[in-house]
Amino acid sequence: MKLRTTVKERFNKFFSNVLRKSNNKGFTLLEILVVLTIMGFLLAMLAPRLGGVSNSAVDTVCDSNQSRTIQMVGAYFEKTNRFPDKLTNLVSQTAVGAYAIPTYSDDDPDNGKETLSSEFNSRVAPQIHYLSEKEAIELKAMGVANVFNLNSYENNTLTTANIGPFAVTDAGDPMAPTKVATGLGVMMSGIGAANATADFVAPTLDITGMGEAEFYGRIVMGVGPESGLITSGLVTNAAHCPGGLQNSDNVVYNDYNIVLPRLQATVDRVGATPVLTDVAADMDGIQLLAFGYTEDTAAATALAATVSAAGDISAVTGATKARLVTFAKQENHQYATMCPEGHMFPADDADFWALDLDGTAGATTP
After folding, report:
1. In this predicted model, what pLDDT tens digit does every residue of 83-101 receive, in sequence order?
2. E-strand stretches of 84-162
3. Is the pLDDT of residue 310 over 50?
4. Euclidean distance between CA atoms 72 and 297, whole angstroms
5. Phi, psi at 344, each rounded to 5°
6. CB atoms within 10 A of CB 269
7. Cβ contact 283:366 at 8 Å
8. In sequence order, what are the residues at sequence separation of 6 or more whose Cβ sits closer than 8 angstroms to the Cβ of residue 29?
9. Which string of DSSP letters, residue by residue, matches 20-76?
10. Which residue from 135, 364, 95, 363 is spatially nearest to 269, judged by alpha carbons?
């Protein structure tokens, strides 16, 4: 028995020594370099694909947020028969009774943040519009009786073209509660009136780069934490755009938005003074001609330059499609949502739209 124990102990000791020597053996420098090189190649191949996955995920989350916003607004409307109150009025008060579009980004985070993204500005073509008495009454009948003025003044000292500055002689407080009334300044897509009784300003240039031609002449408002969707308990909190979070060092505003249906009072106000040319007189209402094109089309840049220089889109090339847009009152269910970068949901069938406002493109029917 003693002999067996001794042999067993010696075997265990020998085996333990072998394992210890084996475990102490490290990698050579050459082996480490080979492994690191292989890992570098793998990362180089995977990084672009992972970046695509990340961008795709951002778009998916944004679409999901907008889809839920549409559903929640629909549920709110079904329950109350009106739109959520206390939306965000996307304007800045510059003096008593005077408003301006907040500054939009120059895409340079080194000089500080601006309020709106440059993409939002180009896709919405926002204008200050002062509500007439009839427009204010119609808005309140839809449920929008109280709003919160955004009153955002970030980087208001910028002198870059198309950004400002504007004088703030009597600035309002951020998110100041305001009653919807005659003379309130709101953000309208593409067109606006200088005061509550003034005619719409006749367009001197056609519009390019719009995200959706149907948005023209419609009021855009934000869905912030103060909105009726949140305060009613239908939604626990206001969603934020993941793309905006990635750009938070450059842009401040990051709430989703509702593009309200076009008001009958707005249509009547435009119709009173013919600032829009009807390209299809044989049809009811005012028909505008819209051309869809993509940002990948080489002609897009030339198109924008031509319109800027001459206000004429009659020689549009690179357009992927065309359609007539009727400038008319819209029903309550024709609202749309828009992310803070100006993208609607569901996505439109063209990346950008050029809108003929003065009829220079002729009466061509798509």
Report:
1. 999 999 999 998 899 999 9
2. 87-89, 92-95, 98-100, 126-130, 146-149
3. no
4. 37
5. -90, 165
6. 22
7. no
8. none
9. HHHHT----HHHHHHHHHHHHHHHHHHHHHHHHHHHHHHHHHHHHHHHHHHHHHHHH
10. 135
Tokens of 272: 């009173």
Distance of CA 110 to the CA centre of its chain: 22
Query: What span, in angstroms and rounded, lies between the C-alpha atoms of 239 and 2?
Result: 78
Look up residue 274 and give its two tokens.
């013919």
349: tokens are: 């069938």
Q: Are strands 87-89 and 146-149 parallel, antiparallel or unpaired?
A: parallel
- Distance between CA atoms of residues 114 and 249, nearest Å: 9
SS3 state at 86: coil
Q: Which of 255, 258, 260 is nearest to 237 (CA)?
A: 255
The predicted model scores a pTM of: 0.80
Which tokens go with 75?
Answer: 């549920």
Residue 317: pLDDT band (50, 70, 90) is: low
Long-range contacts of 60-64 (CB under 8 A, 24+ apart): 61/242, 62/241, 62/242, 62/243, 62/339, 62/343, 62/345, 63/345, 63/346, 63/347
Q: What is the separation of C-alpha 87 from the centre of its chain, rounded to a whole number of angstroms?
A: 16
Which amino acid is it at 53? Answer: V
Q: Output Rg (C-alpha) for the chain, integer angstroms.
A: 29
- Positive or negative torsion for Cα 122, 123, 125, 130: negative
What one-character-per-residue DSSP string does 266-317 give?
HHHHHHHTT-S--S-TTSSSEEEEEEEE-TTSTHHHHHHHHHHHHS--TT--
Give whole-number Cα distances, 146 to 83, 110, 179, 249, 295, in Å: 11, 37, 5, 31, 38
Q: What are phi and psi of 307, to 5 degrees?
A: -65, -40
